[in-house]
Amino acid sequence: MTRVKKYLSKDKTIRIASVVSTELVQAAIEHQRVSALSLTLMGRAMTGAVLMAAQLKEDQVVGLHFKGDGPVGSIFTEARYEGKVKVYCENRNADLPSHGKISDGLGSGHLEVVRSLPFQREPHRGTVELVSGEIAEDISYYLKQSHQVPSIVALSTIPGDHGCESAGGYILELMPGYTEETVQRLEALQQVIPPINQLIAKGASESDLVSDYLVNFEFEPLVHPHDTFYQCDCSMERIENSVRTLGVAEIRDMIQENRVFDVTCEFCGKSYQVNPVQLQRIITELKA
Where is the signal peptide (predicted)? Predict the structure, then answer.
């Protein structure tokens, strides 16, 4: 079971969300072959989206679209306050050239963040440049530029022989009313807190990841009411709806050629087949 832990300082000027997301990342690649580089960036992006979604309200959704010119290409992840998350990577088998850095996987480009609210006709969109290709730094830059929220974002995904060995992270945000003293204390802590990769590799829990902050500031835990889980929206019904858009003539040609409509979901890797019998039923429904 995966659940985000949240904390709010007693003076209400700092909020933190932390999560150990190993199970989520492993679920995301269950039906897919993914390189270590793509897995690392997908896991970090998805973890970041989960943490951002946990600070939203019921029925709200956040989507992060990293569009880079590196070997991974683009990564899109969407997370809901209620816990559902999914992720897509343009090139799941991307590799770095020798001596390349993880951040080179995305390269240069943009991060588009889409926030959807219930009863809102159009979602809110914000776009910033990728400042480094490091997922955590790019999310922090977005929060500062688009929402004027200073933050500390730490994300980690460690690949293993059988997929994701460990993953997790946290987002600390400064809220209105924070003081310069708070900033200085946080900066001092940053100099002594172990790197997030080191904490995750040692099996740190959600509270372990942010223990240095919890000890040095007065925090109260907040209850997040939802577990987080990986779930794709794909289904045979959606696939058949896609087939319907081809029109009767093209579907009839597929039947005459005894072709099977093959589709692989970009988010979860699940394969679907629509056979000639199903295609004929779709034609009948379209003519009705």
Answer: none
Secondary structure of residue 256 in the 3-state scheme: helix
Q: Are residues 93 and 159 located together in one domain of the fold?
A: yes
* Single residue among 181, 198, 230 that ends a domain in this structure: 230
Domain check: are 161 and 37 in the same one? yes
* Block residue for tokens 């776009």: 127
pTM score of the predicted model: 0.89
Contacts 24+ apart (CB under 8 A), 54-59: 54/4, 54/6, 54/17, 54/19, 54/81, 54/224, 54/228, 55/6, 55/15, 55/17, 55/171, 55/173, 56/81, 56/115, 57/81, 58/82, 58/118, 59/117, 59/118
Give the range of the structural domain holding residue 34, as residue numbers without chain letter: 4-230
For residues 140 and 259, membership in a common domain is answered with no
